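Quick one: structure for this chain?
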Amino acid sequence: MTLRELQYLIVLNRTRHFGQAAEACFVTQPTLSTQIRKLEEELDVQLFERDQRHVFPTQVGEMIVKRAVRIMHEVEQIRETARSASDPESGTLKLGIFSTLAPYLLPHIVPDIRRQYPNLQLLLVEEKTDNLLSQLEAGELDCAILAEPVDDPSLHSTHLFEEPFVLAVPDSDPLAHKPRIQMSDLANRELLLLEEGHCLRQQALDVCALAQTTERPDFRATSLETLRQMVVAEVGITLLPLLSIQPPVSPQKGLTLRAFDDDAPSRKLSFYWRSTVARTEFLKSIAELIRQLPKQLLTWPD
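Got it. Here's what it folds into:
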């Protein structure tokens, strides 16, 4: 049994797909299949059930995966301890960030991180929140920027900032002529929302509940950019995070943006890492650097 085989096992359990697991592990699918089969032969148990369309762990496979995750955590701690002893600000830092934040936040923070830590190799992973949490728990990420709350006692966190939402409407919408929006203005309206799996979807649904607003049932977008274009096409209205409309994002013709008045809806972002990592103080310094995001990026211009 090798650490490489355990890593294949963990990734296959996460992806539930031999091709995707092989791609994530940078090996061919036959190589990964062979190693999983070799591990099953050594342990004399079936770890995964397979058919032409599905791969899922057996009961004993789930138990072994959990132990494999703990083993890989400990291995990573050995590596982190060695790195920290020599130079905690060098080596590789694998940072996860979800897709409705990544393209709008990263241009503002990555240059500062690289200037502050020139010997650090920053690897960025953009995924949905559930996938980021799985990778963080499995030791495949060092840290992640996620929307609060995250209910996981194995993770430490520090708050970064609160990001307001703005309302995006077509130029022809009556709300486009109001200087500011009240939550009551959304009553009995339908919002365009993202598909399942995006944390922004749940945040928008929370706003819907507060404002007596409903989701438009016949449309779910895969990205913020799709939502933006659907508003321009006068399909409906939506909520956008403030960072997603700040430079370098270009203004969109046909799209009117309006801030909310007092008690504006928002999302809270925090920096998460495993409580067992050896580079805790260094990760806190990275979080502090991110926290220094210019205030004007999170403030609606009056």
